[in-house]
Amino acid sequence: MYYNGYPRYVSAAEKREKALKRIEKFKKKNVNLSPVILQNNTIASSWWGKAWNKNLESYADYSNRIGRGRIYVRSNMVIDLQINKNKINGLVQGTAASPYSVQILIDPLNRQIWQNILKECQGKIEELDELLEGKFPKLLAEIFTKQRTGLFPAPKEISFYCSCPDSAYMCKHVAAVLYGVGARLDIYPALFFELRDVNMSDLITEVIQSKTSELIKKASKKGKRVIDDKNLSVIFGIELETDKKKAQKKVSKKLKE
To answer: Which of 55, 80, 109, 200 is the most buried (most CB within 10 A)?
Structure first.
């Protein structure tokens, strides 16, 4: 609707409300829909989500373009987001009646870089142990977020396509999906490792072995073996679970809560 030749102002809250109704409509046609739903203007709150977004914003190639997607993701316009090995698929509602289809390809993490990261983490039991407590040591954060030698992808490792007519290098729909990944990592950070095609368990084998040995010794003193699976299977706030279907189920369950 227009007033005096200008479109009627629509508040952020109204946009979010309309988006939620649209999502419910699409869910009737696709029960596997996995939208990015934000409760406020905060796109990501966990270390992994923030680090993903910060990495993208740190590159000059993206810094002037990616901001176009903030309003869209904050307005719940990313109505579907699927993260798989080296691939991200999204549906973003734009001005057209039908949502635009976005596909983003992420190169697998260079194997030599991964081996170097594993080597740097060797012997850092105290830092890795802090991860089991939900903390993120500065030393490991520095190792993981180094440009070109860390875990996070550089622009040259990212390619994308959007079905919208926008001829810009990075349209707002692609930018919204990239930000949506940061929001999704808040819910299930393990998807990051699947996206980059590396085995998270390689990183924490040392600390798990150390923890297991410690717990077995304590259990032996008590005359019985009691090992808390959560202490052995949880790191970075993620379960040692690489099964994609189970991961997506957890995401869906979180979204319904």
So the answer is: 80
- Rounded to an integer, what distance in angstroms lies between the CA atom of residue 79 and that of residue 20? 9
Q: Which two tokens stand for residue 133?
A: 């407590």
Q: How far is CA 5 from CA 1, 9, 93, 94, 95, in A?
A: 9, 12, 24, 21, 18
Return the sign of the alpha-carbon dihedral for residues 67, 153, 81, 131: negative
pLDDT at 36 over 80: yes
| CA distance to 153, 182, 212, per residue, from 48 (Å) | 13, 7, 26
| Dihedral angle, C-alpha 75, 76, 77, 80, nearest 10 ° | 170
Q: Which helix (H) or strand (E) holds 124?
A: none
pTM as predicted? 0.75
